[in-house]
Amino acid sequence: MIQFLLNQELRNEQNLDPNLTVLNYLREQVSKTGTKEGCASGDCGACTVVVAELDGDALRYRTLNACLTFVSALHGKQLITVEDLKQDDKLHSTQQAMADCHGSQCGFCTPGFVMSMFAMQKNTDGYDKETASEALAGNLCRCTGYRPIYEAAEQACNTKEVDFFDATEVSTVDRLKQIPAGGASLSDGEKVSFVPTTTAELAQMYLEHPDAKLLAGGTDLALEVTQFHRSIGKLIYVGNVKDMQEVTNTEDEIILGAAASLSDCYTALSAEYPDFGELLHRFASLQIRNQGTLGGNIGNASPIGDTPPLLIALNADIQLRQGDKTRRLPIEEYFLDYKKTVQQSSEFIEKVFVPKTKLNQFKAYKLSKRLDDDISAVCAAINITVENKVVTDARIAFGGMAGIPKRADNAEKALIGQAYTEENIEIACNALTTDFTPLTDFRASKEYRTLSAQNLLRKYFVETESAQSTYTQTRVTAHV
User: Fold this and answer.
1) Residue-level pLDDT at 371
2) Whose CB among 44, 140, 189, 210 lies 3.0–4.6 Å from 38's, allowing a Cys bridge?
3) β-strands 378-387, 348-355: how paired?
4) Residue spans of the chain under pLDDT 50
């Protein structure tokens, strides 16, 4: 059985299909139809809901795509939908702002926008356009244009007042704490979903059910159900394994739990490596980053996953666990072939270790058809160490150039030990053509990918060299 609060109502669910999404649960099981289905793939934001999670003695509010969230992920949390905002026949300030500013026409996308504004209002003090842009980037509207919606967000944030959720927060925290953490599961008699709470419990459960699918954020796995209409017989949800959500800073490295959301990883990574933070800003939408995990992005083993090239260039390690046994290896050794890794049966990614480098010239680049919320055609991560104008080390990794995220070995060899000059960068660019044989697909041609990879290496040189004198602006930095 799983337990959660649907606004203020305690729900005890036991005999549900574990493949049931929160969206369909709301619409089909409890007749809350304000939450809409637009794309069923996490792109449009019409299904946005807010989940409140325990954060010590307070609540943390996060937006989620209900279309990509399985019901078992709600255990121990509070689910808030657009129907819950209105109190005593009075619109919530976010709803009132949308009405006052004429932010809605057909209304289909409106509930999702309102929920994103609600979470933004809870998590900010006052209005900031960049923050609003990030909060609303995962919500699409095809009627009004976005000016009145931004005006509504500004009004909602600047007229923030104590609401029903603030008034009941203490009692909500107390009720969530009373929900037993362990032993939760969901089954319809054929399919089952387990909800472990510790890494040891997860490891043992995975040994007993090696055929189960590990579910973290579900932003990719859920598409098996919503887009391909496949059934997943066994799920193990790792989102309640607290020790795998920890983000720790030591003197020498950043240690990231594999179940830590990309939103939670952002602060630590961006502080040490600003370009990593910039790339995470462009990683899908805030709703996706609130659900998606670093371990999931690695374990998915996609050749166009955004974080693996960056982690490879930073010489990161991962820790794999199988039962009580663990092993640590460089992340570049994890990937073998397209969607094939060294991971063994019942083995899972437990932690990611990102070293801190004092001689850091790390930069990351993502080429996609849209600036935000799009999949890479080419992703580059370059980390070249120069001492006394000579290259002493080079780690150059790409996504989208091969069946796996991969280093440009020949380009690196062409640079190491050589003077850091434009002429030697050109030699490395020529060597790069021997490192990869990219494919042509609907995102980009092989010729485009090859030339782009070379140009990104040239761009890196311009940026790092001009940083020593007059900075040459080579990037689009205006996101709003």
Assistant:
1) 81
2) 44
3) unpaired
4) 471, 478-480
